[in-house]
Design a protein that fits this description.
With 753 residues, the chain is α+β, with helices and mostly antiparallel strands. The chain has a 4-stranded mixed beta sheet with strand order 1-2-6-3. It has a two-stranded antiparallel ribbon with strand order 4-5.
Length: 753
C-alpha cells in the first residue's frame, strides 16, 4: 500500500493538536478540583518553573494560600504552606497523611524496604520501632553517645586546623566527623579521615543525591520504562549496590564474631532479632531489610547534619558579630580547655539559639520529606485521592511573619525571649511532625550543638581574601524524597570547572611571584595590577575570584568556538572540492606557496574571505545564540515581557532567511560576493551577536579563522577517506553545535601540483 506522505503528516499534526487540546481540557477540570497554584504546561506540569528557579518556585507557593498545587508531569502534588494546616494533616490526620508515594526510581533500588521510604504499614512500624529501641540501647540520648561526639570533635578540630590560615574545603572533614557517630552505633567503629575506602563511600553517597536529581532520573519517575535505558540512574543503582556490598561484608564479619550475650552495635542487634523473629509469620526482619535500614541510618546520620554544619559556617562567616558573641559566651562558660556537654545548653543560650537559627536559615529540606495519602480523604473542602503526594513548605513556615521576629534575616534573637533565655517557637519543625518525624532528631540536635560549640571554642572562621559569598539559594536536587543543597547538580561539570579554575589559580600564583608592575606581560598581570589599583574603591568588582572566572571565560570563548568552526569548515570544504580548489588557486596566485598571509590580504582574496564567512554561516555553531534575559518588565511588539524572561536569538532562522541570502539553503560563498566578485557582508551575518553583549573576542576570532584557513588551504588538500561515512550534519547540540567525530586525509600541496 502506498501512503500519501502529506495525508500522513496531516493526520499526525491533527492527532497532536487533539492530544494537546485534550490535555488542556483535562488540566482545566483537574485544577477546578484542587487547591490553586501556578498554571501547569501540558504533559510536563509545573516542572519548567521548578527547573528554572527551584527556590523561587517554592517561595512563590505561599501566594496561593495555605494549600497550593504543583504538577510533576500530570501528577498533582499538594503543598502545605502554613504550620496550622501542616499540623492538621501530619499530626491530627496522621494515619492518612503518613504514606510514601510511588516513585519508580526509588522503589527500584529501595524495594520498599528499610525505614525512610518504606510504605506506611506493618513493616515500617516494626523497623522503625526496632531502630529507635536499638539506638537508645546503644546510647542515643545518653552520655555514652555524647562522649563519642566529643571524642570525634577533637579529631575534627585537629583536622580543620591542619590548614590553619589557608583556604580549604571543609566538606570531607565535616562529613567524616558526622558519619563516624552513626557508624560507631551501626558498625561499632569509626573511620579515620584519610581512610580511602570510607572516603569513597561518602563520595558515592553524595553522588547518588546529585544523580537522583538529573533530568534522566526525573524522567524515569515519570516514565518508568526509561529505567531500563542507559543514563545517570544506572550509576545510582551501581552506587547503591556498592554500598550494599560494603554493608553485606560488615554483616558477614559481624556474624562470624557475634556474641549473643554482648551485642556490640545495631548490626549485632538486628542479626539477633532475625533469629528471635524466625518463628513469627508476620516478621519483617531479614537480611535485605537489615541492609536497607542500615543504608537509611547511614544516609540520615551523615548527610543532613554535615550539610547543616556547612551552611552554618557560611552564616557565621557572613555574620562575624554573631560568631564572636558565641565564642565569647563559650569561653566565659567553658574556657578554652573544658569540652561542652548537653547540660551546658542553658548556660550557652545565645550559642544554642544560633545553632537553631542556622537550622532555620539553612532550611536543607525546603519542602520537607515527601508524604502521600494512604486513603481518600478531605482537607479544607478539597477531595484528595489515595496516593496523592503531599509536601510541607518549610520555606514558607520558616519565614512566616506570624511566628518569627526576624523572618527574612539571620538573627539568633528568633530563639531568645525578652530575658535572653532560649525558647523554641512552635513553627520550628525542621525534623517534621507526626509519625514520620525524623528518626535521628535526638542525635542530630546533639551533634549540631556539640560540634558547633567545640568548633567556635577553638577556631575563628573567615572567608579567604577576595572570595565571594556563594549563592544563598544553594543548589536544589529536585524531585527527590529529600531536597538538599549541594555544590553541583551535574557533578562532572563542576569537577571539570574546578580543575580549570585550579589550573588558572596556579598560573595566578606564579604571576604574583614574578610580577613586574612596570612591565605587565599579559591579562593576568594586568588584572592583578587593577586589583591593587581598585582596592580603595568600595564598589570595585576586581578580586581574584572574578579574575579566575574571567580568565576561564576567555579560555573557553577563545578555544572551543573557533576550533569548532574550523572543524565544520573542513567538512564543508571536503563536501565542496570545487570551492576548496578555487580557494587554493586564488591563494597561490596572490601569495605563492611560501609567503604567509596577513589581514591586509583580505581584499586580494575575496573568494577565500567569502568562503570563511560562508563556513561560519553554515556551521552555525550557536543555533540560538547566547542566552539573554530581560533586566526589567518590558513590551515588545505588543507583548508584555516580565523581568527575568529568557530571550534567545534564532540564528538558524536568520542564517537561512530568503530575504537576506542568495542561496540560503546551500553552502555557497557567493552569499558574500557582489556582482563584481568583491566581498561584502550582508546585514544578517551576526554570528557574534549584537548590542552590548556582542562577543568580546570577535576581532580575534575573525583574524584566526581567516589566517588559519588561508595557511591550511595554501599548503594542504583535504579529502574524505575512501568508503567513509559522512557525519550527520545536524551535529551534536549542547552549549555549542559540534560536528560528530570524523577522519580526514591530508595531502601536501606544492608548486608541482
Amino acid at each position: 500500500m502506498i501512503f500519501d506522505l502529506n495525508s500522513v503528516s496531516l493526520a499526525l499534526v491533527l492527532g497532536l493538536i487533539f492530544l494537546v487540546l485534550f490535555e488542556m481540557m483535562r488540566i482545566h477540570f483537574t485544577r477546578a478540583r484542587t487547591p490553586p497554584g501556578p498554571t501547569p504546561f501540558p504533559f510536563v506540569g509545573t516542572l519548567p518553573y521548578a527547573i528554572k528557579d527551584p527556590m523561587g518556585s517554592i517561595r512563590s507557593q505561599r501566594q496561593y494560600g495555605e494549600m497550593s498545587t504543583v504538577y510533576m508531569g500530570r501528577q498533582p502534588i499538594i503543598i502545605l504552606n502554613t504550620l496550622q494546616i501542616s499540623k492538621e494533616a501530619l499530626v491530627q490526620e496522621a494515619s492518612t497523611f503518613s504514606g510514601r508515594p510511588y516513585l519508580p526510581l526509588m522503589e527500584w533500588f529501595s524495594k520498599n524496604l528499610g525505614i525512610v521510604m518504606a510504605p506506611f504499614g506493618h513493616s515500617w512500624r516494626q523497623q522503625r520501632r526496632f531502630a529507635l529501641h536499638t539506638l537508645r540501647d546503644f546510647g542515643l540520648g545518653k552520655k555514652s553517645v555524647e562522649e563519642r561526639v566529643l571524642d570525634e570533635s577533637r579529631y575534627l578540630v585537629t583536622e580543620m586546623l591542619k590548614d590553619e590560615g589557608r583556604a580549604f574545603d571543609p566538606e570531607h572533614a565535616l562529613q567524616n566527623a558526622v558519619s563516624n557517630i552513626i557508624c560507631s552505633i551501626v558498625f561499632g567503629d569509626r573511620f579515620e579521615y584519610d581512610n580511602k575506602r570510607f572516603a569513597h563511600l561518602l563520595k558515592i553517597l553524595k553522588e547518588n543525591i546529585i544523580l537522583s536529581g538529573s533530568a534522566m532520573a526525573r524522567m524515569a519517575n515519570l516514565l518508568p520504562f526509561l529505567m531500563h535505558c542507559p543514563g545517570p540512574h544506572q550509576k545510582i543503582l551501581q552506587n547503591t549496590t556498592e554500598l550494599r556490598d560494603f554493608i553485606r561484608e560488615e554483616v558477614k564479619k559481624h556474624r562470624q564474631t557475634l556474641d549473643p550475650e554482648n551485642p556490640r552495635d545495631f548490626i549485632d542487634a538486628y542479626i539477633l532479632e532475625i533469629e528471635k523473629q524466625k518463628s513469627h509469620e508476620d516478621s519483617t526482619f531479614h537480611e535485605e531489610n537489615l541492609l536497607m535500614s542500615t543504608i537509611d541510618l547511614f544516609f540520615a546520620g551523615t548527610d543532613t547534619t554535615s550539610t547543616t554544619i556547612r551552611w552554618g559556617l557560611i552564616f557565621l562567616m557572613e555574620n562575624p558579630d554573631v560568631q564572636e558573641r558565641c565564642h565569647r559566651e563559650i569561653v566565659q562558660v567553658l574556657g578554652y580547655d573544658r569540652l561542652p556537654s548537653m547540660d551546658d545548653r542553658d548556660k550557652l543560650s545565645y550559642t544554642y539559639a544560633t545553632v537553631h537559627e542556622i537550622q532555620r536559615c539553612a532550611n536543607i529540606a525546603p519542602l520537607g520529606v515527601v508524604h502521600a495519602t494512604t486513603q481518600p480523604t478531605k482537607l479544607r473542602g478539597y477531595d484528595i485521592p489515595k496516593g496523592t503526594i503531599i509536601m510541607t513548605n518549610l520555606t514558607a513556615i520558616f519565614t512566616d511573619k506570624e511566628h518569627w521576629k526576624c523572618p527574612d534575616t539571620f538573627n539568633p534573637e528568633n530563639f531568645l525571649d525578652e530575658n535572653g533565655h532560649f525558647y523554641k517557637p512552635e513553627a520550628f519543625v525542621a525534623f517534621s511532625m507526626g509519625p514520620r518525624i525524623c528518626l535521628g532528631e535526638t542525635l542530630a540536635r546533639m551533634e549540631l550543638f556539640l560540634y558547633f560549640v567545640c568548633l567556635l571554642q577553638r577556631i575563628h572562621f573567615s572567608w579567604p581574601p577576595n572570595s565571594q559569598c556563594p549563592d544563598m539559594d544553594g543548589i536544589i536536587v529536585m524531585l527527590l524524597p529529600f531536597l538538599l543543597h549541594f555544590p553541583g547538580p551535574h557533578q562532572k561539570i563542576f569537577q571539570n570547572n574546578t580543575k580549570l579554575r585550579d589550573f588558572i589559580r596556579e598560573e595566578v600564583k606564579e604571576h604574583r611571584q614574578t610580577l613586574d608592575p612596570e612591565n605587565p606581560r599579559d591579562f593576568i598581570d594586568a588584572y592583578l595590577l587593577e586589583i591593587e589599583k581598585q582596592k580603595s574603591h568600595e564598589n570595585s568588582t576586581f578580586h581574584e575570584e572574578n579574575m579566575v572566572v574571567s580568565a576561564a571565560d576567555l579560555f573557553f570563548a577563545g578555544t572551543d568556538t573557533t576550533a569548532t568552526t574550523i572543524r565544520w569548515g573542513l567538512i564543508f570544504l571536503m563536501d565542496n572540492p570545487d570551492v576548496q580548489e578555487r580557494c587554493h588557486k586564488e591563494i597561490v596566485q596572490v601569495l605563492g606557496y611560501d609567503r604567509l598571509p596577513s589581514m591586509d590580504d583580505r581584499d586580494k582574496l575575496p573568494y577565500t574571505y567569502a568562503t570563511v564567512h560562508e563556513i561560519q554561516r553554515c556551521a552555525n555553531i550557536a543555533p540560538l545564540g547566547v542566552v539573554h534575559a530581560t533586566t526589567q518588565p518590558s513590551k515588545l511588539r505588543g507583548y508584555d515581557i516580565p523581568k527575568g524572561t529568557i530571550i534567545m536569538t534564532n540564528l538558524t532562522a536568520i542564517f537561512s532567511d530568503k530575504e537576506h541570502w542568495k542561496c540560503p539553503d546551500t553552502f555557497n560563498p557567493e552569499n558574500f560576493l557582489d556582482e563584481n566578485g568583491h566581498f561584502y557582508k550582508p546585514e544578517a551575518f551576526i554570528p557574534f551577536s549584537m548590542g552590548p553583549r556582542v562577543c568580546l573576542g570577535e576581532t580575534l576570532a575573525r583574524m584566526e579563522l581567516f589566517l588559519y584557513f588561508v595557511c591550511l588551504l595554501q599548503q594542504i588538500n583535504f579529502s574524505w577517506p575512501p568508503n567513509s561515512q559522512h557525519p550527520d550534519m545536524d551535529g551534536i547540540v549542547s552549549s555549542l553545535r559540534h560536528p560528530h567525530p570524523f577522519k580526514i586525509i591530508c595531502r601536501s600541496r606544492d608548486a608541482k601540483d
